[in-house]
Each structure stands twice: as structure tokens, then as C-alpha cells.
């Protein structure tokens, strides 16, 4: 125990796997613990720096403890991104929940800086110091405390201190929902880690989230399918399509078999688990125009981030993929497979965000939803998947089938 000038009697607790939720692997580093959202074997099978960056960003990962502490300190080493020519990105946000209710937020300054020069195609990592996150004024009673790590900022966990002993929070018996998707599921442009749409949906439905939303990397990779297969889960959803178009990764001939293969692998580990395939939300630039997606460099030079579709719509005839083509193919595949797999379901992503939503809440960069749209998608998903006749009905907090009325936290 350490007594500091502020009068707190600090107890340091080792950060171990039983205190963390939402991570598939923990790497011991020179500074502490780095949570990963893909296992080491998967990471070893792909040298893509984009995947390496996003799977190490702890979207949905949270530290969960049981304690009477009124003050909590967490030392972390963040890695922040700086794009040459663009305004600095804001610091990643940490959300503090007490007994499931958002009680405070904080940031950690300092840390490493990953400098990305899109024009030169180079990346440089500059060293930086460990920082400290501090929350005080917590209620003096036994309680569950969760610290949700920044969804968009690599975060090494260095030390945990509290002014009362801690234990791992008990299992509340809630169902585990594993979700895989793109940067939209990862949380791009969300306000904070509990404000990404999967976290909002999980809170409303009363389930435990494992978020495998991987920015730019929902590409039907076999190693990701194996990660889903091997992760314990009661409910699984796969949001497929936008990254395949973004990367101009494959043609229609390859896409269908790749989807079948992904589903086959998942079913090896989860033969009867409710499995929901979700097609892309509306994205006007790619509805009928193939990829690849590119950054609008003229807008970037003005400090604005906009994306554009660079493919030729005429190339659809030769098998190039658009979102409309992918939606039709996913609906066909699920309809065929569900004849022998009654636990397989389909959801058209435009039910989460469609034409009317686009008119009211357009995608600010033409690709990613803003904070208000994350909330809308999360609320819609909770209702469509967990209530009524949804794929996950009967497995969440409103198992009776009622509609979602508000934030369950």
C-alpha cells in the first residue's frame, strides 16, 4: 500500500485477464499489458499494417472490477495517430461506468505518436511517456466499476491503483454477443467507447459485448473466421460488405464462396448458436459504384476528410462488387443456407440506416456515421435483433419481446 500527498491509501492491483472483458489475447510488453482483439495466431497470418493497428485498438475492451474504492487511477501508454496535413485528432476517451451507469469520462495525454504521411506513404512512431487516468468521488459502497478503453487508440495498460482493495467482478449471467464488422462497428466517429453502436445495442439488450469490428479489415479473412469460431459466445452477428468494396478485394465469383467458407468455419465452433448476417448500411457513394474507395485529397488539403468511390459502374457487368450487389448476394446465401440451418438469420443493413436516415443524418465523410447516427443504429439493432421476432429474441434484457424504450444502462 502507498500513501500519497493527497491522503489516498493506494493499493496496486496486477492487471490480469480476469479483470478484462472484450479482449481475445493479452500481450505482455516492456510497459505492461496490451489487449488484442485477434489472437496471436491470427495476427501472425497477416502482415497488413492496417489490421495490426485496428485489432490493437481496444474497441469494446473494458476493465471490470468489484470494489468499495472512491478513487481509481490507471496508468496507460496510448498510441495516438497524427496525419500530416490534417488537424490533430482528439485524445481517446475513457468511459467510467458505476454499476452499469456512465459516471465520468477522461483522457490520457502524452504517449506515443504514430505519424502517417498519406502523400509519401510513410509511417513513423515517435516515443512518448506513460500517462495517468484518474477518477475520484466514486460512491463509497461495494459496486461494479468498468473503465472502457478508447475504441480508437491503442492502449497499453501499465498499472491499476485504487484506494480500496479490488476483486474481479462476478459473472452476471448475461449472454455473450460477439459481433464482427468494419470501421462502422469498430466505432469510427463515435463520441466515446460506450457510444459506438455495438456497445449501445449491447447495453440496451443487456448482453456482454465482444466487439470484433475491425476498421478497414472486415474482409472475410479465414483467420478472423477461426477467431470467431474459437471464441465462446451465445449470440453472433457478422456485418459483411463495405470493406470488400472499399478495398476492391474480390469479384462476385469469389465473394459468394468466401461468405460460405466464413460461415462454414464459424459453424464448426458454434453449430446451433443464433447467427445473424447483416448486410451494409446505406452508403450512397458505393450503392452502385464499385471500389476502391479513396480519400478526397483536395478536401484533405483543406483540412476536411471526405471519401470517394473510384470504380466504374459499368464494371459491375464483369463482376465488380457494389453494395447493392452484395446485399442481394448475402440475402440469397442466407436464404439457401437457412433451409438446413434454422439458427441462421439475415438483416438488411438499410433497416439500420437507410434512405430517410441518409437525408436526415448524412454520413459526414461519406463513409462513416457520426455520434447521433451511431445511437440510431444501436437502438435500431437492439430492437430488430433482440426484440419481437429478431434473430436474438429471448436472449436479452427484454426477452418478452417488447421494443426498446431507452438506454438500459
Describe the structure using short key phrases.
alpha+beta, 11 helices, about 30% strand
Write the layout of secondary structure elements.
Layout: E1 2-3, E2 9-13, E3 20-21, E4 25-28, E5 33-36, H1 40-43, H2 49-55, E6 62-67, E7 72-83, E8 93-98, E9 101-107, E10 112-117, E11 122-126, E12 131-135, E13 143-148, E14 154-162, E15 166-168, E16 176-181, H3 183-186, H4 197-205, E17 208-213, H5 222-230, E18 235-239, H6 242-246, H7 252-269, E19 275-278, E20 293-295, H8 297-301, E21 307-309, H9 323-337, E22 344-347, H10 355-360, H11 371-386
Parallel strand pairs: 7-10, 16-17, 16-18, 18-19, 19-22
Antiparallel strand pairs: 1-2, 2-14, 3-6, 4-5, 6-13, 6-15, 7-12, 7-14, 8-9, 8-13, 10-11, 20-21
| Approximate helicity band | 10-25%
Strand content: 25-35%
Intertermini distance? 33 Å
Q: Given the helix and strand composition, which structural class is it? A: alpha+beta
Low-confidence stretches are: 399-409
What is the assembly state of the chains in this entry?
Answer: single chain
How does the major sheet shape up?
7 strands, mixed
Describe the structure.
Helices cover 24% and strands 28% of the residues. By secondary structure, it is an alpha+beta fold. The strands form five sheets. Strands 1, 2, 7, 10, 11, 12 and 14 form a seven-stranded mixed β-sheet that branches. Helix 4 (197-205) crosses helix 11, helix 5 packs parallel to helix 7 (252-269) and helix 7 (252-269) packs across helix 9 (323-337).
Short précis:
The protein has 409 residues and is of the alpha+beta class.
Amino acid at each position: 500500500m502507498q500513501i500519497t500527498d493527497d491522503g489516498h491509501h493506494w493499493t496496486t492491483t496486477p492487471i490480469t485477464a480476469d479483470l478484462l472483458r472484450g479482449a481475445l489475447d493479452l500481450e505482455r510488453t516492456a510497459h505492461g499489458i496490451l489487449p488484442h482483439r485477434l489472437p496471436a495466431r491470427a495476427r501472425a497470418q497477416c502482415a497488413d499494417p492496417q489490421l495490426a493497428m485496428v485489432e490493437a485498438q481496444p474497441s469494446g475492451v473494458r476493465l471490470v472490477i468489484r470494489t468499495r474504492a472512491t478513487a481509481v487511477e490507471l496508468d496507460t501508454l496510448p498510441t495516438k495517430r497524427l496525419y500530416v496535413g490534417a488537424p490533430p485528432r482528439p485524445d481517446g476517451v475513457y468511459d467510467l461506468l458505476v454499476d452499469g451507469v456512465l459516471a465520468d469520462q477522461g483522457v490520457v495525454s502524452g504517449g506515443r505518436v504514430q505519424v502517417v504521411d498519406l502523400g509519401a506513404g510513410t509511417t513513423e512512431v515517435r516515443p512518448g511517456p506513460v500517462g495517468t487516468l484518474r477518477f475520484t468521488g466514486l460512491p463509497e459502497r461495494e459496486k461494479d466499476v468498468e473503465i472502457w478503453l478508447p475504441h480508437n487508440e491503442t492502449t497499453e495498460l501499465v498499472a491499476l491503483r485504487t484506494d480500496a482493495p479490488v476483486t474481479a467482478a462476478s459473472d452476471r449471467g448475461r449472454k455473450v454477443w460477439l459481433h464482427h464488422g468494419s470501421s462502422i462497428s469498430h466505432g469510427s466517429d463515435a463520441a466515446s467507447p460506450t457510444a459506438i453502436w455495438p456497445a449501445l445495442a449491447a447495453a440496451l439488450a443487456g448482453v456482454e459485448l465482444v466487439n470484433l469490428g475491425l476498421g478497414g479489415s472486415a474482409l472475410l479473412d479465414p483467420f478472423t473466421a477461426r477467431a470467431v469460431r474459437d471464441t465462446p459466445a451465445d449470440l453472433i452477428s457478422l456485418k459483411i460488405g463495405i470493406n470488400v468494396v472499399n478495398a476492391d478485394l474480390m469479384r462476385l465469383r469469389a465473394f459468394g464462396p468466401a461468405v460460405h467458407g466464413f460461415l462454414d468455419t464459424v459453424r464448426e465452433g458454434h453449430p446451433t448458436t443464433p447467427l445473424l448476417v447483416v448486410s451494409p448500411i446505406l452508403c450512397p457513394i458505393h450503392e452502385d459504384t464499385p471500389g476502391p474507395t479513396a480519400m478526397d485529397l483536395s478536401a484533405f488539403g483543406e483540412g476536411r476528410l471526405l471519401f470517394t468511390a473510384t470504380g466504374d459502374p459499368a464494371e459491375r457487368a464483369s463482376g465488380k462488387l457494389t453494395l447493392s450487389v452484395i446485399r442481394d448476394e448475402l440475402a440469397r446465401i442466407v436464404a439457401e443456407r437457412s433451409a438446413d440451418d434454422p439458427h441462421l438469420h439475415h438483416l438488411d443493413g438499410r433497416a439500420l440506416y437507410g434512405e430517410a436516415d441518409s437525408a436526415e443524418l448524412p454520413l459526414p465523410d461519406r463513409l462513416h456515421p457520426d455520434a447521433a447516427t451511431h445511437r440510431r443504429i444501436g437502438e435500431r439493432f437492439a430492437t430488430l435483433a433482440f426484440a419481437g421476432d429478431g434473430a436474438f429474441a429471448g436472449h436479452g434484457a427484454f426477452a418478452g419481446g417488447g421494443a426498446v424504450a431507452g438506454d438500459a444502462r
